[in-house]
Specification:
By secondary structure, the protein is mostly beta strands. The chain has one helix and twelve strands; from the N terminus they run αββββββββββββ.
Length: 205
């Protein structure tokens, strides 16, 4: 019985160590789905009249595949691709994409591995529009070209289910800059910073 127990413990110990070794291929993914429907109720008390309006359903989809290569033990260099789309019923979808080279370093050994990660990337919005109010009755919608510069630094914890698959919990600080060019005389720049937490899946081959 003691020998059987020892074999079980030995087997579990072997399988929970992650394959973060030089020469391994890293594949990761994070996905987020959000569906919502809103209802607005307007009441005019001066004439004792009420009306209601239900907005169309908005579907949001974000997908972030990652691929990398371990050039050293525990050290990954790779590319992070992010695609986000918003679709309102009856309208064209709009969103953005980014491509970000990243570096990632895993610490310690075992089935729980903390890690550090940093990335820099570029991207663009698609089907993006800007509104101009000419007067109280006229509004102009103009398609614009918006570029994205993105930077992220942070870390997290990887839990290895076996020697190939890990669940990863991330906490990052992000700094995104959006630059919109409408014409040579007018440019708009916005900066978006904050903290973001995500959960992803990683595969080591």
């Amino acid at each position: 019985m003691k020998k059987i127990a020892l074999l079980i413990v030995t087997f579990c110990t072997i399988t929970i160590y992650g394959q973060t070794e030089k020469g391994s291929v890293f594949i990761g993914a994070q996905s987020n789905f959000n569906f919502s429907s809103s209802k607005y109720v307007t009441t005019n008390s001066s004439i004792n009249y009420s009306s209601s309006y239900t907005s169309d359903t908005t579907n949001n989809f974000t997908f972030t595949p990652q691929i990398g290569y371990l050039i050293f033990d525990n050290f990954v260099l790779g590319l992070d691709f992010k695609f986000s789309s918003t679709k309102v019923k009856g309208q064209d979808s709009n969103g953005f994409y980014t491509i970000s080279p990243f570096a990632k370093y895993y610490l310690l050994e075992g089935n729980l591995k903390p890690f550090l990660k940093a990335s820099l990337g570029l991207g663009s919005f698609f089907n993006s529009y800007q509104t101009y109010n000419v007067n109280s009755n006229v509004t102009i919608y103009e398609k614009v070209n918006t570029k994205i510069n993105t930077a992220r630094i942070g870390g997290g914890l990887a839990y290895f289910i076996n020697n190939t698959i890990a669940l990863e919990f991330n906490l990052d600080y992000f700094h995104d800059v959006y630059k919109t060019e409408t014409n040579p005389d007018y440019n708009n720049k916005q900066t978006h910073t904050g903290i973001q937490s995500t959960i992803g899946l990683a595969v080591f081959l």
